[in-house]
Amino acid sequence: MDGERNYDIVIVGGGHGGAQAAIALRQAKFEGSIAVVGDEPDLPYERPPLSKEYLSGERAFERMLLRQPQFWDERAVTMVPGQRVVGVDAGGHRVTTAGGDSIGYGRLIWAAGGAARTLTCPGADLAGIYGIRTRGDVDRIRQALDGVARVCVVGGGYIGLEAAAALVKFGKQVTVLEALPRVLARVAGEPLSRFYEAEHRAHGVDLRLNAGVAEIVGEDGRVRGVRLASGEAIACEMVIVGIGIAPAVAPLLAAGAAGGNGVDVDATCHTTLPDIYAIGDCAAHANAFAAGAQIRLESVQNATDQANVAAQAIMGMPVAYHAVPWFWSNQYDLRLQTVGLSTGYDLAVVRGDTASRSFSVVYLRGGRVIALDCVNATRDYVQGRKLVAAGAEVPAARLADASSPLKDIVIAA
Fold first, then answer.
1. pLDDT confidence of 411, banded at 50, 70, 90?
2. Confidence grade of residue 1 (pLDDT, cut at 50, 70, 90)
3. SS3 assignment for the chain
4. What is the pLDDT of residues 309-346, one digit of tens each?
């Protein structure tokens, strides 16, 4: 793309949020011009499979496309792939790309997500270190796997654990390094953490807790191991880093938007800059399911729902964002489904027997249900959603009784 172009709507970011924003606008009969500017070469695709089925080779990329190419053509949505937006002129209603192009907009929807956080320790620039954020990341991992016997995964969050589970299927010797005392410490209670620790160890993963990384050790410019803060060295030929994302909001903040860890938005996803909205992983918003705290929510659900909210605001039909958060994770033959946000819970109730590998953890705050983690327990997930949405007050003993369906508790509540 050369020179200068203008669109009624410019959407920065070709992920779930950006794609859904374009779809929602057309569904609402928006007739103006729309462009989606993405920094990847591909059309919008599903991100969650990257660390799961795509990494393990169980799902082809073509089956991850959110829509086929003709869909966008038929709806007159201009796709501008491979262009990273580096500047925003809020007064002039223009964005600039890394390639020097200038694109004018009437309204701007910022759906740029974030970049995988990288290591900062010595050796962090060696070849053989990978993040998992894009198709390209995973393609490079898969291309390098033939020459790799041992992999160190840094980070015991969902991305790290999903990657570990996928790599075990390839017969790799996998070590997971988590700096905190338990995996999933930021997103789940101890019962779920301990369950997944045991599962990974049962599958042959060398899982290390309280394991800070001091240095990546190399030879001839390539990874050869990881040295821990304790001084222990672990040999490996590949390092995968899963330590979260840095929200991609620098151009907006430089343009004067309020924010810090993300860009601040109001209930209709509007930033503090005129005619600029932000959605998805990079949008810091007051969330009712986090007791009104200003948070970023990294999930497909949030990106999609905020895209719909922004589209409705642009169409002159504003609604306040209010959606029950949900997430999922596939590891081995375990399907974890989460509803609500457990942050700030004061009681975690285990429902069922963890040894059966089908159970739920129900989280309460002040006696009210705020979240559920359901492992191979889809019925609890579906029925428990209503308890979370209502903030139902339920005795812990009743929640713990797995013989009593949650739907009965919903009715009683």
1. confident
2. very low
3. CCCEEEEEEEEECCCHHHHHHHHHHHHCCCCCCEEEECCCCCCCECCHHHHCHHHHCCCCHHHHECCCHHHHHHCCEEEECCCCEEEEECCCCEEEECCCCEEEEEEEEECCCEEECCCCCCCCCCECEEECCCHHHHHHHHHHHHHCCEEEEECCCHHHHHHHHHHHHCCCEEEEECCCCCCCCCCCCHHHHHHHHHHHHHCCCEEECCCCEEEEEEECCEEEEEEECCCCEEECCEEEECCCEEECCHHHHHCCCCEECEEECCCCCECCCCCEEECHHHEEEECHHHCCCEECCCCHHHHHHHHHHHHHHHCCCCCCCCCCCEEEEEECCEEEEEEECCCCCCEEEEECCHHHCCEEEEEEECCEEEEEEEECCHHHHHHHHHHHHHCCECCHHHHHCCCCCHHHHHHHC
4. 999 999 999 999 999 999 999 999 999 999 999 999 99
Cα 408 from Cα 413, distance rounded (Å):
9
